[in-house]
From TrEMBL, chains A, B:
Domain Toprim, first and last residues per copy: 80-175
Span of zinc fingers (C4-type): 57-72
Annotated source species: Gemmobacter caeni
Name by which UniProt lists this protein: Recombination protein RecR
Keywords from the named record: DNA damage, DNA recombination, DNA repair, Metal-binding, Zinc, Zinc-finger
GO molecular function, one term: DNA binding
The organism's taxonomic lineage, starting at the top: Bacteria, Pseudomonadati, Pseudomonadota, Alphaproteobacteria, Rhodobacterales
GO biological process: DNA recombination; DNA repair
Main function: May play a role in DNA repair. It seems to be involved in an RecBC-independent recombinational process of DNA repair. It may act with RecF and RecO.
InterPro entries: DNA_Rcmb_RecR, Rcmb_RecR, Rcmb_RecR_Znf, TOPRIM_dom, TOPRIM_RecR
Keyword DNA damage: yes
Primary gene name: recR
Gene3D superfamilies membership: 3.40.1360.10, 6.10.250.240, RecR Domain 1 (1.10.8.420)
Similarity field: Belongs to the RecR family.
């Protein structure tokens, strides 16, 4: 044995988190054991609380702690624009950027022939219904610039076509601070095709 | 805002774990949020349980879930040999190696002029008392081959000298599988000085 079995169980659960292998899970648990009062007890409590209260927003699929997520419940957010993201992580990234004032629709993934992920698993029907029901002026597709992301974007554009809603997607190009020398050919190509007059 | 404040609080606490920055803490919490039933709830429960039950072993300083740690409580462990380690992590590493059948003494750090860590913070007086009280044949110093580790080893050897106990330390040399080409000069020098006849 190394640690008592309760502690080994805890290490095993921690090791299932992304970015923590067995070795770093062990190190994280040791830190917790040394800071039982100031860190471990509050962390356990915060985690239990969120595990109990977190739920998927009935409207947009974002994670919140009530039936409507904070964004859908915020009367100051514009209702006419829906930003479609694959994942809650992407929603958080958009929010960190602080440039979008509308609402979201979280797909819960992207279409993937490999993983067998089809449209029905992705809340795409819910998006179409929402665009019909709400007075939606524009749907902004904020999906990864990957094959699956772009396949999903095309699928959604087709599905939304009958609604007549305006559909846009994030621009592709040179990232801010990006050096051409380090960019892949695809990005440079996309940036050239989307070039703007200065 | 990005996530609801409860979730942001959880991310903030997770980010205080070693190996998890703000970004990976966010990713870990998202994984937890997606696996609330199978992972987040059990992890919160395991953590709360360990936070409540874990305590430092009264004899050796190892972390266990009762007054005596599993090693001190195990009658099959030899009592005549005490292996001195700086930290519980080192104890776990020794136990994983599975080569030591005696008991431990966890210092809780190493002497450090920089951090202002002196002998009294390190359970060194407790070690001396223990060597006097228990029938101790040998004290094995398993400390890091760093300046602080070796300073601590020398200090302990001096403190234990009056007891007459046999004091040894882990051998320094080429690690198993180690390639000379990649070893630092200090290790090669130590290995040469400790060379053995074949
Ligand atoms: Zn919502
Ligand atoms: Zn013990």
């Amino acid at each position: 044995m190394t640690a008592p079995s309760d502690i080994e169980d805890l290490i095993g659960l921690m090791a299932r988190l992304p970015g923590l292998g067995p070795r770093s899970a062990r190190r994280a648990v040791l830190t917790l054991l040394k800071k039982r009062g100031p860190l471990m007890a509050p962390l356990a409590q915060a985690m239990a609380h969120v595990a109990l209260t977190a739920r998927d927003c009935a409207t947009c699929g974002n994670i919140g702690t009530s039936d409507l997520c904070p964004i859908c419940a915020d009367p100051k957010r514009q209702t006419g624009e829906i930003c479609v993201v694959a994942d809650v992580a992407d929603l958080w990234a958009m929010e960190r950027a602080g440039v979008f004032r509308g609402r979201y629709h979280v797909l819960g993934g992207t279409l993937s022939a490999l993983d067998g992920t089809g449209p029905d698993e992705l809340r795409i029907p819910a998006l179409v219904a929402r665009v019909r029901d709400e007075a939606t002026a524009e749907v902004i597709l904020a999906l990864n610039a990957t094959v699956d992301g772009q396949t999903t974007a095309h699928y959604i554009a087709d599905a939304l076509e009958p609604t007549g809603v305006r559909i846009t997607s994030l621009a592709q190009g040179v990232p801010v601070g990006g050096e051409l020398d380090y960019l892949d050919d695809g990005t440079i190509g996309a940036a050239l095709r989307a070039r703007r007059q200065v």
